[in-house]
Design a protein that fits this description.
Layout lengths: L1 E12 L3 E12 L2 H21 L8 E14 L4 E18 L2 H12 L6 E7 L4 H25 L3 E9 L8 E8 L1 H6 L3 H8 L5 E14 L1
Antiparallel strand pairs: 1-8, 2-4, 2-5, 3-4, 5-7, 6-8
Helix pairs in contact: 2-5
């Protein structure tokens, strides 16, 4: 007798990594001026993060582009050049330390033209945690198979096949802090806000396994 069951395992883990994604924007009339001013804005930001113990190599760039902006002319019914847009998206990853994070964000809030940013919360790669989740999932599958076999007057002899999808590369919390420079400047003390009111949700690491058991009377 073959018994096919689905086992589920999950473990909750507190976040231990924060990824801060920054977006720098600048609009100018010509390409050279737009690139220069946009780059200067990033350089001023780097000066701020250095005060928090980071360096320029900690800021990893994902996207950097200077693109034309077009505006539609109703009279000519054509799109005309309306300046250029500088956009650089970069991020910093650090161990989740509320004091260090608050210090960094407070420094950013003091910039005259700071970047917009989002905070994502993750956990470090953890093989033992993966093993724990898989073990729980398999035990759940075995428990169900034993119940089914017992009701049929049988006993589980062996597990013939186990199948599951690989773990995701990133294990993310559902909590995301999404703020722009306007919101940051609205805080009289962003440090107090981060420390006292924002606690990221624990990450639920979950795995589903498909098991084929063989039972005999």
């Amino acid at each position: 007798m073959e018994i096919m069951v689905i086992g589920k395992g999950n473990v909750k883990k507190k976040v231990d990594i924060v990824k801060i994604e920054f977006q720098f924007n600048h609009k100018g009339d010509n390409y050279e001026e737009t690139l220069k001013k946009g780059t200067e804005r990033v350089d001023k930001f780097v000066d701020i993060i250095k005060l928090s113990g980071f360096n320029s190599k900690d800021l990893i760039t994902e996207t950097l582009r200077v693109s034309e902006e077009k505006k539609y002319n109703d009279q000519t019914r054509t799109y005309e050049l309306n300046g250029y847009n500088f956009c650089q998206i970069a991020y910093i990853k650090l161990d989740y330390d509320q004091s260090l994070l608050a210090k960094l964000l407070e420094g950013i809030s003091k910039l005259e033209k700071g970047p917009e940013y989002k905070l994502y919360f993750e956990i470090k790669e953890n093989d033992l945690l993966k093993e724990q989740v898989l073990d729980l999932a398999y035990k759940d599958a075995l428990f169900q198979a034993n119940l089914i076999a017992k009701s049929a007057g049988c006993k589980i002899k062996e597990c013939r096949k186990v199948s599951f999808k690989p773990f995701d590369d990133q294990m993310l919390s559902n909590s995301i802090l999404d703020t722009g420079t306007r919101l940051a400047k609205a805080y009289s003390s962003i440090q107090d806000n981060i420390l006292n009111t924002f606690v990221p949700e624990d990450i639920n690491v979950e795995k589903v396994v498909y098991c084929l058991f063989v039972a005999e009377k």
